[in-house]
From TrEMBL, chain A:
The keyword Transcription does not apply. Keywords: ATP-binding, Cell membrane, Membrane, Nucleotide-binding, Transport. One of its GO terms (biological process) is peptide transport. CDD domains: ABC_NikE_OppD_transporters. It is a peripheral membrane protein. Pfam families: ABC_tran (PF00005), oligo_HPY (PF08352). This is Oligopeptide transport system ATP-binding protein. It is found in: Cell membrane. The keyword Lipid metabolism does not apply.
TrEMBL record, chain B:
CDD domains: ABC_NikE_OppD_transporters. Belongs to the ABC transporter superfamily. Keywords: ATP-binding, Nucleotide-binding, Transport. The lineage of its organism: Bacteria, Bacillati, Actinomycetota, Actinomycetes, Mycobacteriales. Coiled coil: none annotated. PROSITE patterns: ABC_TRANSPORTER_1, ABC_TRANSPORTER_2. One of its GO terms (molecular function) is ATP binding. This is Oligopeptide transport system ATP-binding protein.
Amino acid sequence: MTTEIVQRTALLQISGLTIDTEPGDTSVRLVDGVDLTVAAGERVALVGESGSGKSVTARALMRLDGSLTIGGSIRLGDTEILAQTERRLSTIRGSRIGMVFQDPMGALDPLQSIGAQVSEPLRQRGIRKKDALRRAAEVLSELGVARAHERLGAYPHEFSGGMRQRVVLAMALIGEPEILIADEPTTALDVRVQQQVLNLLDEVTRERGLGLLLITHDLGVVAGLADRVAVMYSGRIVEDRPVRALFADPLHPYTAGLLAAVPRLDVHLPRMTTIPGAPPSPALRPPGCPFHPRCPVAMERCASETPPTMATADGGRRACHLDQGSGN
Amino acid sequence: MNGTPLLDIRALNKTFGGSRGSKALDDVYLSVPEGGTFGLVGESGSGKSTLVKCIVRRERPDSGAVTFDGRDVHALRGGDLRRFRRDVQLVAQDPYASLNPRMTVEQIVGEGLVVHRLARTRADRRARVAQTLIEVGLDPDAMGRLPATFSGGQRQRIAIARALILRPRLLVCDEPVSALDVSVQAQVINLLTSLHEDLGVTILFIAHDLAIVQQLCSRVAVLRSGVVVEEGPTRQVFSTPRHRYTRELLEAVPIPDPVAARAGRTIPGGVLTLP
């Protein structure tokens, strides 16, 4: 059942991605060889803590950080993102890739009406203002904004946090993209609004058969939404597996530790389970497996040899020197 | 069972922006027993920050009283006020903003000893800083370093050490782990649990994360739009919430389990089905 996931056509294919800060003596490798695919209609979560490189990866997909050196390949269908001119990129951003970021307020222009902002991607394509606005109202009401047509003239500050995230989502969806990239879309939100936004992401991706790359630090958010989860640590993907398999039987000690450290309402223990230490800064990445100083089962070779990424029986992969687990 | 309240809040009201302004706190009653761990849960705009400010005297309530150890906090003067400022310590949310970047760890953690004239000599102060750093799980050799050289979790330990060195009776923790990585957050929660057990310090823990409150706090109050909608033992409130708002909050907590999250979910209190 799970093998069909890998055999579906890749919509987004990231291969050998490296991201470095500005060249020179102080250059730091933020992302150190990442491979990741999202198939059409597939919902993939990229999970990591601070310094893991997950957010910089998300931004690289859109080439939003001009000062970074990006190597490897990012293909969207037949288009190599890293070979596009800035002008062609901005078309791709509006029409083929939709983006939702953590801070809906930061993504919105406080001085422009909601209608103007949501319809903008269509206006760029030369669609008449009246038609673009009508479509904006339609998308907004599909996303649960009541009386959307009347509220096109409203400004972002007149909307609540949850409503603003709907507006941002409408901006991302109006161009009918093939894939949605959501970078910590619920992090700053209250728990009830977070739930609404997650349900919304679930619905729109399911109904539209839209690919989703969800970047988050929160495994709780991932569990209900993603088909597949890639766990990133210090610039590398350490495990990438179907969501149920990963939660039921994590094959990388970091994934296992992270899952155990998540506070849960349904678990009562006298002490929370912890991972000792803290994630390393990219400038101070330990040699070998970057997780080895915190790993409860580290062996001698882990400190010197970078573990190769191996396929697991369930169609996933992991990078760890430990014997391959059952993987089913 | 609950002991005498160390912190007692009665009929507290606070409105911002004049008489027609918005009510941040609306007739709030809370009672934190000595030696207890008390969680205060609320979303943004619930009034929890205003309540914290009223407790630590950064904001004056319009009416009502905050009583600490039997005395009205807002009427304290002189020696009583100095005593209060020792006995009640605040650990803020953001360990990046709350530590002076130009001060060494020794200066930051030892500052309270200087302010309250609690160390006779520099050597005495240094020894107590070292001891407190050990209590929060930091290497005392790090004393001479600046905050910037520490990770977020370590900075929050420094902030806790700074509060703890005064041997406070009440530790007010305002979202102390929400800026930390998951793998580090659990360490800080365990540290607070240990400090409570070992030192008997009373903890008032303000948070939006209900799972963390359940982990740490024996009692909990739920604040919504300035009103305490529910209060009681954490297990009881979370397993049989009486107020609809509490239920909504509990139902909205994502469960890190793909099977439960998709199939309908079990939380303490019953099976709920997601829409």
